[in-house]
Amino acid sequence: MAEATTTQKAVVATGTGEDFGSHIVIADVAAPAGSPADGFVRVKVAAAALNPVDWKMVKYNFLVAVENQVLGCDVAGTVVALGAGVDELAVGDEVFGFQSIDIANGTFQDVLDIPAYLLLKRPAHLSATEAATLPVALYTAVFGIFRDQPGAGASHAFERDAAGGAPFLVWGGSSSVGQVVIQLAAAAGFHVIAVASAKQHSYLRELGAAVTVDYHDDDVDAQIRAAAEAAGAPLRYAFDTVSVATTLRSAKLLDASADAPGFVTTITDVPEEAVANVSVIHTLMANIHADGDKKAFMLDARKKIAAWVAELPVKSNPVTVIGTTWDAVPAGLERQHAGVSCTKLVIDRAEA
Predict the structure, then answer these.
(1) Given a cut of 80, is residue 286 above it in pLDDT?
(2) What is the DSSP track for 83-140?
(3) Cα distance between residue 214 and residue 224, in whole Å
(4) Where are the beta strands (DSSP E) in 142-294?
């Protein structure tokens, strides 16, 4: 009988610094052995997607100490072993999910162990490469809309058609997160106003945007206000995926008062300038495993997230396969840093 593989190739950070590409290498790492820890699932990787957080952790040395750690967050693959206490998945299940970065054992390797609660069964409408584009964007969208805004006082719920057509601004609608925010907000009954380049407008309307606005236009703010007025309700909710400046701009566009405050979710830094009667909430779910409140929310919401993905159905980000081996990741992260639009860069290990 052949001996089990004890090492595998992986994408590893050797340090941190402004020249982040010089600190990302392909290296041999230990392959998981024995049984997974309690509550964990061993997954053979079929596809893994690249995210900005992968290079930002190396460039800016934030969130976790990444030196000598395997990078990567998004993954799709096959369950090959189960830890004790895992009863909702079985060996052979096709899954997709997110590896919490505080576990410091990322998805850019062939086999890894992931907490079961961060995995979902892959529905039939998604291929492995498509499913791999979703986890970070999907969980960020769910947390930002249905956990963090309500946690700050917003009244909307994680329910279909519950928002009654209230306007909801998505700035950066063609971003990875923005695409999923549009879908979930529309499913929750919001009248979605999406800001993005005009070339993406047709696609964003397919995702569920009721109105699309080109950020290049001189009258962007006027168009947003007109769209909200046409919806017949005050614009009190926004989700920004672009920058501190657009987060502040979104906040200033809200029709907020002391009796009816506004709420902006951002995945960038919170602006220093405050806007009266508007709460700006920074959503970060990358460190979910170490945060008891975030973990509790995920455990409670997981079945509903899976149902929405399968039943809406949630569409993946457009896929750009950049290679079939981990060797393609460092150049892919440099490419992502330079800027990509309305697509997710993916490694397709199933074709290796």
Answers:
(1) no
(2) -TT--S--TT-EEEEE--GGG---SSBSEEEEEGGGEEEPPTT--HHHHHTSHHHHHH
(3) 10
(4) 167-171, 191-196, 211-214, 237-240, 262-266, 278-282
**Contact, 304 vs 158, CB < 8 A?**
yes
Q: Are strands 167-171 and 237-240 parallel, antiparallel or unpaired?
A: parallel
Mean pLDDT for 157-186 is: 97
Report pLDDT for 3: 45
CB 316 within 8 A of CB 310: no
Fold annotation for 7-134+292-351 = Quinone Oxidoreductase; Chain A, domain 1 (3.90.180)
Please give the Cα distance from 60 to 62 (Å, whole number). 6
pLDDT value at 1 more than 50: no
What's the pLDDT score for residue 2?
A: 42
Query: Is residue 125 scored above 90 in pLDDT?
Result: yes
CATH superfamily of 138-282: NAD(P)-binding Rossmann-like Domain (3.40.50.720)
Q: Which tokens go with 31?
A: 């392959």
- What is the residue extent of each domain of the chain? 7-134+292-351, 138-282
Q: Which two tokens mark 316?
A: 């993946």
Is there a contact between 109 and 11 (Cβ–Cβ < 8 Å)? yes
The CA-based angle 112-139-195, given to 5 degrees, is 130
Helices (H), 188-319: 201-207, 220-231, 244-253, 292-311
Query: DSSP states of 10-23 as a string?
Result: EEEE----SSGGGG
Structure tokens at 6: 């004890």
